[in-house]
Design goal:
The chain has 370 residues and is of the alpha+beta class. The protein has two domains: 211 residues, no CATH class; 124 residues, no CATH class. The chain has 13 helices and 16 strands. An eight-stranded mixed beta sheet has the order 3-2-8-9-10-11-1-12. Strands 7-6-14-13 form a four-stranded antiparallel beta sheet, with no helix packed on it.
Length: 370
């Protein structure tokens, strides 16, 4: 392939070669695979581990696998895990100290990740985390180290799920900027292929190392048409309204108490969210008292101790904690980081055991319900 060519076509063998070339280059390739009745993210050794022929059916509090009539490997919507678990791990050791006071900081993780199959909503989520954790006056050094070595292979979505609403958030179904390569999967006419667009010099160099053929104008046009058509097949939509203003004006709305009557404050929504970033630290010691340490773990504003100050927690009711999460995600995030904190992936809807729908609650608050 010519070095300056930016759009190509590969088959399943080419996709496997892509994975193999990344591994040879020292990357740990992370992508979707089938495990425990869900499509989860895990390290891949070949493209054969992708969930070929599997799709998902989603709804409020619902996630079910189903068999497809084709062998598509990316025809499924977001699963229970977000890519942030590799850039911003759920738990990590910070330091240890011995009885003699000897201090040992945790060794920096020396790993290069390549993410395969990142959808537009999750690509937007990574861009948000870049602003939250990787920028500003006090960036997270561990996040920046992982992010600096990241190779991103996005997937343009052609089959959104029942809880997807990325189109109304402006984050999909087409992958936005920031990828090294973007794939559009095609299974029509009995031929399984991927139209590949490069988005960086690193992406072009990788394509030069595998066997490809030039994508025809018809292939490119058909792929883009399928992605465009996916906009009209979203299962949900965020209301087209000034949400930050509605949240400010609705601070005392009875809606918060109504949703609290259903909310279990289990924190599932924050754990599956691709942009929630809050953490806390925990100190621990061994049974003999000879070694102490400190670790960082994900935290949630649904935990009653999250707002603890001397004398007690500020937000003790479920209504106040739900309002805090909702208000920050869709309201004050704009003031703090310049965008919404929601990317429309729908995970919080699918994995809420009570089936609470963030788009439905937003519609009620803005008067757009129905």
């Amino acid at each position: 392939m010519e070095a300056e060519q930016e759009t190509a076509t590969i088959g399943l063998a080419g996709l496997d070669a892509l994975v193999g070339t990344l591994i040879e280059a020292g990357y740990r390739v992370i992508g979707p695979t089938l495990r425990d009745d869900a499509i989860v993210l895990a390290e891949l050794n070949s493209a054969a581990q992708l969930p070929a022929g599997w799709g998902v059916t989603t709804g409020p509090g619902q996630y079910r696998l189903h068999r497809r009539e084709d062998s598509a490997v990316f025809a499924h919507s977001a699963g229970p895990q977000a890519w942030k678990r590799y850039l911003h791990p759920p738990q990590r050791k910070l330091f240890e100290a011995g009885p003699d006071g000897q201090f040992t900081a945790a060794e920096p993780e020396n790993v290069r990740y390549a993410f395969l199959g990142v959808r537009g909503c999750d690509l937007a989520a990574i861009a948000i985390l870049d602003r939250v954790l990787g920028a500003g006056a006090h960036p997270d050094g561990a996040y920046r180290r992982r992010r600096s070595e990241l190779f991103l292979i996005a997937v343009n979505c052609t089959e959104p799920g029942g809880v997807c609403f990325c189109a109304s958030m402006g984050t999909g179904p087409a992958a936005g900027p920031g990828y090294d390569l973007a794939l559009t999967e095609r299974t029509a006419d009995g031929e399984h292929r991927f139209v590949v667009e490069s988005g960086s010099s690193a992406g072009r160099r990788l394509l030069d190392r595998i066997s490809t053929r030039a994508a025809s104008p018809a292939e490119v046009s058909e792929a883009r048409a399928e992605v465009t058509a996916a906009v009209g097949r979203m299962g949900r939509a965020m209301p087209d309204a000034d949400l930050p203003a509605a949240i400010r004006e609705g601070r005392e709305s009875p809606q918060w108490e109504e949703v609290a009557g259903r909310c279990l404050t289990c924190a599932n929504c924050t754990m599956v969210c691709p942009t929630c970033f809050c953490t806390t630290t925990e100190d621990h010691t061994d049974l003999a008292g000879g070694l102490a340490g400190r670790s960082q773990r994900w935290a949630s504003c649904f935990e009653i101790d999250f707002s603890y100050v001397h004398g007690g927690s500020v937000r003790t009711s479920g209504a106040s904690r739900y309002r805090q999460w909702f208000s920050h995600k869709l309201g004050t995030w704009h003031e703090q980081f310049g965008s919404s904190g929601c990317v429309g992936c729908g995970r919080c809807i699918a994995w809420c055991p009570a089936g609470i729908d963030i788009t439905e609650e937003a519609a009620k608050l803005t008067g757009a319900a129905g």
